[in-house]
Amino acid sequence: MRLRDFPEEELFLQGSAACHGCPGSAAIRVAFKALGRNTVLAVIASCTSVFQSPFPVSALGLPTLNMAFATGGATASGLSAAADRLVAKGVLEEKPTILVWAGDGGTYDIGIQALSGAAERNTDFIYVCYNNEAYSNTGTQRSGATPYAAWTTNTTRGKEEWRKDVAQIMVAHGIPYVATASLAYPTDMFRKFARAKEIKGTRYIEIQAPCPPGWKFPSSHTVKVARLAVQTGMWMLYEHENGRTAYTAGTQRIIQGQSKLLPVEEYLQAQGRFRHLFHPQRDEERIGEIQRRISHVFETLQFTHKMKEHIMDIELAPPH
Amino acid sequence: MPKRKKKEAEDIGFITTLSVPAVGSVGMTGSWRIFLPVIDGERCNKCLLCWIYCPEACISKDIRIDYDYCKGCGICAEECPRGAIAMVKEEKRS
Ligand code: SF4
Ligand code: SF4
Ligand code: SF4
After folding, report:
1. Pocket test for ligand 2, best of B48, B50, B53, B64 (most atoms within 8 A of CB)
2. In B, which residues are within 8 Å of A222 by CB distance?
3. The model's pTM
4. Rounded to 5 degrees, what are φ and ψ at A262?
């Protein structure tokens, strides 16, 4: 899908309450374009609950249910069952896509139980986590998605723990589709939403959402930071379907050797939340530890890729 | 629904906290702007990147900016591969 083939219709309306350069609204635009009008949305407590603007108007052009933090999976289960019933009774011609839109707080920490339950039942819905790696809505507190060494209001010298990986937890549930996406690669993101829409069962898409006020970078750099995350390997793009993981877009290019893995410093230095790693003096230990982990992952993937190509060569070679 | 509840609901009418989709749900957000994006039509090759990256849906597909709602975040100018968008300080605008 090329940009010029994206639908022109905007289901996210201008003049919302989102901050300058908000990644949440940018991601919603692409998601809504890919899913279209026949979608029912459940927004889980997050920045999106706020930036859709106060009652009695809303910037979201889809039927929307605003729900509490812990309820993503449960809400979807109810909506999906209701929609099935309405289709069976002939009230609806076609089942709408049930879309849950939650932040990392409502996914990684507070909502994981209901999400896991719904995934285990293979409930028919798409769950989206737009991951801004903190509780940005309430002024940037750490979440389970906050990366190691990042500043938040309650990790003032940098978070001591490593983030968990909910996309991989969802892969472990054995659901039909799991994908990660980045704001900097809109055609990749669009394709993943369009693919998810075609599938029945639980689908999980996680979008990294660099947040200017929370991560402390200028509002014009939202897309740039998202791109650097992929180029440095801090965020990986893939989709998992039928037991196979396929890396996509920028991540695939690094693995296949078409582009270089940039040093992670370029990503860290672009954001104020990692400033303490460089000022007043460089924290070699923590920067080195982050780089070592990324390099290890990519070296393994690059090696596997080369081996696969090599095996293909052997298979394709004519027998002697 | 139990009979009594149904009667009550009918008497009261349909009451719910239902919001209606609207452009400008928090007003004319163009007033948030400090810098204004200005497109140089000569340089623009209609690649549509600014259209899709704008978090506010303020650039139309024929690459025109809606200044009533553009918040002046600067993403369009930063991402334009042709350098066709300049951010101009608001009061300097002619
Ligand atoms: S805090 Fe971040 S994610 Fe939340 S509305 Fe502002 S820019 Fe968007
Ligand atoms: S990003 Fe630049 S070149 Fe592309 S459509 Fe926008 S103004 Fe034109
Ligand atoms: S400055 Fe920001 S809000 Fe205004 S048109 Fe550019 S990207 Fe959109």
Report:
1. B50
2. 55, 73, 75
3. 0.94
4. -75, 150
